[in-house]
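chain below, 381 aa
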Amino acid sequence: MQRYGTLSLLRHFIFDNEAFDSKPELAFWIYCKEHNIDIHRNHTDFFVFTAQGKEHRYYPDFMIGSDFIEIKGDHFVKDDSTWQNPFDHSQDKIFEAKHQCALQNGVKIYYSADYQKYVDYVENKYSKDFLNLFNTQLPFPYLNPDLKEKTDLAIIQHFHKSIYEASKKGKLSPLQAWQDKNIIKKVALNRLKYVKKCTPSDILQGLSVTRIAPKISVFKPNLAERLIKQYLNEFEEVVDPFSGFSGRLLGTVKCEKRYIGKDINEKHVKESNEIIRYKNCSDCVVTVEDLLQKSDVEVHDCLFTCPPYGGKEHWNENNDEVEKSCDEWIDLCLQYYKCKRYLFVVDETEKYRGSIVENLQHKNGLFANKHEYVILIDTLG
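prediction:
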């Protein structure tokens, strides 16, 4: 037995800051930890063996006391009980030499008949989804990935994947949280406690419910449709300086009006245009524009938007986007867009309280209501 530095290999599972090659390895680790078995991941101790004229190092997976343990899936074993590399058979002789090295040095080898009870233990206690959550290659659970649902909200969920890149101030984005397996474990245990499930979709929901990495809100297309019909129905065209995730775009389409959307975020614009092409919306256009860099004044029939609430949405790791109050954003819209009527949905206002025409209440998670105000400014008198 020799010891040399630290074994550095690409591992496929991460749990409690420890790395594992496979689900059975992780299950064995969890079982031992939960039964007070003194197990250690072997990063440093190795045996030397020779194969194809070269020296190789073999690191058994675990140590329990003075015993070395190897977890080996059946796909690594041939019918004659020798080892193989099922992904590259040119290395079969090396793998078999490693096998003989393990046997010669008294390594305890657990095949599926030996380790399945540990997998069963974890799956029975935590559900069959639990172990897979710690796979570093587990895809992010985007909603409606195959576009099987065709509602407007489902279309937004399919095309606007960038929504999961956004974070609320002081929080991680869902995509960032998805890469942290300690967070995944915490949320998985929470979901198992409250909903008895921990599928990837449950974890995504749990990131918001626990407020660890809440998904930012989407303007509901049916709300946009209702507000347009109620307050802007006589106009043929709607301009939106903060088009975002296409909720007002789709609401405008339902009202059979022309939509002119603008957004500072190129990904949002790209995704919105994918929706426009998918829906074949000939009367819609969305382009990139930063209102803070705008110098020209545009004239339109009406404006309908939901400004980016100050500090509530961030799109990069530095969280250095410009923060303005709702009233400041409204002022900029009034300055650069000359319209007959303006409709804003905001979460707070002081300057425009006299123009509030509705108080919207939305369920925000499980425990609180979110208040928004509809502000109507009419220049027609």
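Residues 3-9 have pLDDT under 50 and may be disordered. The chain is about 30% helix and 25% strand.
thats it, cya
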